[in-house]
Automatic annotation (TrEMBL):
<dbReference type="InterPro" id="IPR027417">
    <property type="entry name" value="P-loop_NTPase"/>
</dbReference>
<dbReference type="InterPro" id="IPR042197">
    <property type="entry name" value="Apaf_helical"/>
</dbReference>
<keyword id="KW-0433">Leucine-rich repeat</keyword>
<keyword id="KW-0067">ATP-binding</keyword>
<dbReference type="GO" id="GO:0005524">
    <property type="term" value="F:ATP binding"/>
</dbReference>
<dbReference type="InterPro" id="IPR050905">
    <property type="entry name" value="Plant_NBS-LRR"/>
</dbReference>
<dbReference type="Pfam" id="PF00931">
    <property type="entry name" value="NB-ARC"/>
</dbReference>
<keyword id="KW-0547">Nucleotide-binding</keyword>
<keyword id="KW-0611">Plant defense</keyword>
<keyword id="KW-0677">Repeat</keyword>
<protein>
    <recommendedName>
        <fullName>NB-ARC domain-containing protein</fullName>
    </recommendedName>
</protein>
<dbReference type="GO" id="GO:0043531">
    <property type="term" value="F:ADP binding"/>
</dbReference>
<dbReference type="GO" id="GO:0006952">
    <property type="term" value="P:defense response"/>
</dbReference>
<feature type="domain" description="NB-ARC">
    <location>
        <begin position="2"/>
        <end position="125"/>
    </location>
</feature>
<comment type="similarity">
    <text>Belongs to the disease resistance NB-LRR family.</text>
</comment>
<dbReference type="InterPro" id="IPR002182">
    <property type="entry name" value="NB-ARC"/>
</dbReference>
<dbReference type="InterPro" id="IPR036388">
    <property type="entry name" value="WH-like_DNA-bd_sf"/>
</dbReference>
Length: 345
């Protein structure tokens, strides 16, 4: 049906340049200019180069759209007048966003939660129990799946967390999910998975990933440098040994579905729901942090005295920031991460 698929993750705080770069990468071109109209023209030329006599059809997927995005700003609306056959697929948690972007009501497809039968089937498929598994685990599994409220990410995370664990761990997981509904079950699932990591370095690595922007390709070498500077690798004396340990931690986090592998070399990703859980944790655990990545506010974020005194980690996007305030007081801060766009300074 379509000759080419093009995809860009929009996210909670859209970065037009980043969206354009993502589209350009699918087209196999590089955007060499920063001027808006020039980049739009370069994208149009990229689409035209793939036309093959006008027979090619394009599907452009704009994923995870939180607020309306102007297709003209991205450089897509001009394609309609250039004889380029393309469709735009928008994924969003808010139907109103699709409507505001011009999608007709009868073209909006609501993707519902899994039915209980589908959820139970998914859990068993991911679990893959052996023939000699304790029969009681099946009953516990059914209850756990019901508590996951049909959320695929919650179901998968619980499977990854409990696979190969003993019955008591399963019972404890079920107990942790009691009294939660569709609005609170995901954080409860992630908390259960986090508590079962059973390794301080792995837990600390997981929290470090929350310092990066949404849908970011997190370089493992950055995690290594931060972990080394924070002295997370106890009893390890060389960078090579620390890298081995970090890779083991990352493998564990991927297996528990708290991190996701990605196509970028030596990088990982964090699901936006998992990242939201980490950011919420930052205000509740000793790793208290200030994270304003993607914020539309310019300059240094406002903080009260109590936050400044307890803050240990700061991660900021430097928008409209000419200099640091002279009266900063963060006596316990151990890491200051500054970013410009999607790159660390």
């Amino acid at each position: 049906m379509f000759s080419y698929f093009v995809m860009a993750v929009v996210g909670e705080n859209p970065d037009i340049n980043a969206i354009q770069e993502s589209i350009a990468s699918y087209l196999g071109i590089q955007l060499k200019d920063q001027a808006k109209q020039v980049r739009v023209d370069e994208l149009r030329q990229g689409f035209e180069a793939k036309l093959k006599g006008g027979e090619s059809k394009f599907l452009v997927i704009l994923d995870d759209v939180w607020k309306p995005v102007d297709l003209e700003d991205i450089g897509l609306s001009c394609l309609l007048n250039q004889g380029i056959d393309f469709k735009v697929l928008i994924t969003s948690r808010d139907q109103a966003v699709c409507t505001e972007m011009g999608v007709k009501a009868d073209l909006v497809l609501n993707v519902g939660l899994l039915t209980e039968a589908e959820a139970q089937s998914l859990f068993l498929q991911l679990w893959g129990p052996s023939d000699d598994v304790d029969p009681d685990l099946y009953n516990i599994a059914e209850e756990i799946v019901r508590k996951c409220c049909g959320l695929p990410i919650a179901i998968k995370t619980m499977v990854c967390t409990l696979r190969s664990k003993n019955k008591d761990t399963w019972k404890n997981a079920l107990s942790c999910l009691q009294h939660h509904d569709i609005n609170t079950v995901a954080p409860a699932v992630f908390k259960t998975s986090y508590d079962n990591l059973q390794d301080e370095v792995t837990g600390a690595t997981f929290l470090l990933c929350g310092l990066f922007p949404e849908d970011f390709n997190i370089p493992t070498e950055d995690l290594l440098r931060y972990g080394w500077g924070l002295k997370l690798f106890k009893g390890i004396n060389t960078i090579r040994e620390a890298r081995y340990k970090l890779n083991t931690c990352i493998e564990r986090l991927i297996h528990t579905n708290l991190l996701i592998g990605c196509d970028a070399v030596r990088c990982v990703k964090m699901h936006d729901l998992v990242r939201a859980f980490v950011l919420d944790m930052f205000s509740k655990v000793e790793h208290a942090s200030i994270v304003n990545l993607g914020s539309s506010k310019l300059g240094w974020p406002e903080t009260d005295i109590d936050v400044g005194a307890s803050c240990k980690r700061i991660s900021l996007t430097c928008k409209g920031m000419i200099e640091f305030p002279s009266d900063l007081k963060f006596p316990n801060v151990s890491i200051l991460k500054l970013m410009r766009g999607d790159k660390s300074l």
